[in-house]
């Protein structure tokens, strides 16, 4: 059982020394920003519209729900975070926030976000947000992460749900548009995280986390990064072919998809020394820009009405 379940931590003070920024850090703001963009894209590409006030309130609830799941993840992972250089300075392992405070904070935000979304939008959207929080905090954090090297693959579904929640807010239903956006994020997750895992494999080994490089080995991980990238790139073009992405999206998705594949192949070929580390970091950093770029173009085209129609041969 995780040491995070022990909400009394004898190694730190019995009262919190955390500031507002420490509690904000528990929400994983960088992940939350990606959730906002992808959920908003789900709203913008939905085949109908919703009142801007409802959209804004729903987006805030989705963002808070995403932050709450990140907080619960940090609460549960406090025992392994302290062992890893990448996470040791997080608020809980650093002793600035007590585990009990993080747990209460995460649960309160989770319940509040789901209730608000149900009140301002609809039951389907609220139920999907509740399931997403449960999936990330329980299925991924408490089970998959410490049990299987496929943790990122299966757990990646949690990060892929926001576009579907966004469409549910607008339509009260789920459609093919958001399923395609789900697939893009789902396929993007393994090459994105495994690129970092190749560099941080010693950290994961010390914490006892069965990440792919530690279980299957670096060579097999590099091969899978290339395979996922090869599948992801054409799937990312589908919004243009289906009509909810325009000419700008087609150009961006094709060019950046080819760049992702090229960087993945570089990771596959460069396997030793500082050059290998740089190759992994390059893929990891570019993958973030890649996903943000795809969804940002969809938002500009659909949300601002700036879509240039594709040539007839694409219709």
TrEMBL record:
Record field: transmembrane: 31-48, 54-76, 97-117, 123-144, 151-170, 176-199, 225-242, 248-267, 279-300
EC primary class: transferase
Highest taxon above the source species: Bacteria
PROSITE patterns (alphabetical): UBIA
GO cellular component: plasma membrane
Places the protein is found: Cell membrane
Known pathway: Porphyrin-containing compound metabolism; heme O biosynthesis; heme O from protoheme: step 1/1
Membrane disposition: Multi-pass membrane protein
UniProt KW keywords: Cell membrane, Heme biosynthesis, Membrane, Transferase, Transmembrane, Transmembrane helix
Pfam families recorded: UbiA
An MF annotation (GO) of this entry: protoheme IX farnesyltransferase activity
Catalyses which reaction(s): heme b + (2E,6E)-farnesyl diphosphate + H2O = Fe(II)-heme o + diphosphate
EC numbers for this chain: 2.5.1.141
Main location: membrane
Gene Ontology annotations of biological process type: heme O biosynthetic process
Function: Converts heme B (protoheme IX) to heme O by substitution of the vinyl group on carbon 2 of heme B porphyrin ring with a hydroxyethyl farnesyl side group.
Something else known: Carbon 2 of the heme B porphyrin ring is defined according to the Fischer nomenclature.
PANTHER family recorded: 4-HYDROXYBENZOATE SOLANESYLTRANSFERASE (PTHR43448:SF7), PROTOHEME IX FARNESYLTRANSFERASE, MITOCHONDRIAL (PTHR43448)
UniProt similarity note: Belongs to the UbiA prenyltransferase family. Protoheme IX farnesyltransferase subfamily.
The protein, known as: Protoheme IX farnesyltransferase
Gene this protein is translated from: ctaB
């Amino acid at each position: 059982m995780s040491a995070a379940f022990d909400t009394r931590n004898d190694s730190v003070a019995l009262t919190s020394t955390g500031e507002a920024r420490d509690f904000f850090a528990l929400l994983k703001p960088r992940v939350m920003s990606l959730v906002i963009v992808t959920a908003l894209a789900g709203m913008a590409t939905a085949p109908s519209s919703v009142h801007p006030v409802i959209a804004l309130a729903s987006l805030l609830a989705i963002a808070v729900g995403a932050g709450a799941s990140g907080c619960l993840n940090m609460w549960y992972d406090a025992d392994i975070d302290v062992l890893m250089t990448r996470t040791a300075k997080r608020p809980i392992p650093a002793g600035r926030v007590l585990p009990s405070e993080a747990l209460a904070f995460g649960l309160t935000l989770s319940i509040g976000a789901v209730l608000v979304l149900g009140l301002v939008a609809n039951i389907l959207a609220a139920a999907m947000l509740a399931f997403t929080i449960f999936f990330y905090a329980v299925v991924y954090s408490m089970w998959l992460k410490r049990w299987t090297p496929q943790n990122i693959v299966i757990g990646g579904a949690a990060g892929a749900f926001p576009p579907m929640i966004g469409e549910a807010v607008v339509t009260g239903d789920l459609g093919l548009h958001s399923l395609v956006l789900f697939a893009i994020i789902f396929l993007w997750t393994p090459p994105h995280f495994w690129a970092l895992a190749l560099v941080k494999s010693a950290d994961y080994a010390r914490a006892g986390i069965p990440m792919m490089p530690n279980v299957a080995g670096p060579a097999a991980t590099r091969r899978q990064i290339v395979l996922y990238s090869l599948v992801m790139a054409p799937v990312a073009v589908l919004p243009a072919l289906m009509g909810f992405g325009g000419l700008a999206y087609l150009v961006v998705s094709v060019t950046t998809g080819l760049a992702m594949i090229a960087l993945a192949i570089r990771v596959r070929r460069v396997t030793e020394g500082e050059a290998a580390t740089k190759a992994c970091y390059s893929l990891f950093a570019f993958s973030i820009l890649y996903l943000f770029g795809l969804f940002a173009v969809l938002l500009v085209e659909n949300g601002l009405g700036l879509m240039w129609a594709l040539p007839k041969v694409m219709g």
